[in-house]
Amino acid sequence: YEPVGTPIAFGEATDFIPVDIDKEGPGGSGFNTAGSQRRDVCFFRIDGQTGENKGQLQYTNAKGNVGTFTDYWNWAIGRGYL
Question: Least packed by Cβ within 10 Å: which of 19, 20, 53, 76?
């Protein structure tokens, strides 16, 4: 997992921060020929007073099933021309 900033409260937003991207990718998978790569993102609950990791953020759907909240980003690399 790659930390992308300090914990925030529900409803708050983080600042933009730089995230280093390894062109080789996790496990050497690398970018495809179009220069893009998918990164899965997990969200963790952190106790604001103790800093204790309370595990991944979960939700309950309309049927009462509990799931882990995840998301993904497609990252791209490219060239700049002057």
Answer: 20
Is the Cα torsion angle 65, 13, 15, 74 positive or negative in sign?
positive
Q: 24-72 pLDDT, tens per residue?
A: 655 555 666 666 777 777 788 888 788 888 888 888 999 999 998 888 7
Every domain of the chain and the residues it spans: 1-76
Say what the pTM is: 0.44
Contact 28, 41 (CB under 8 A): no
Which of 14, 13, 33, 15 is CA-nearest to residue 23?
Answer: 33
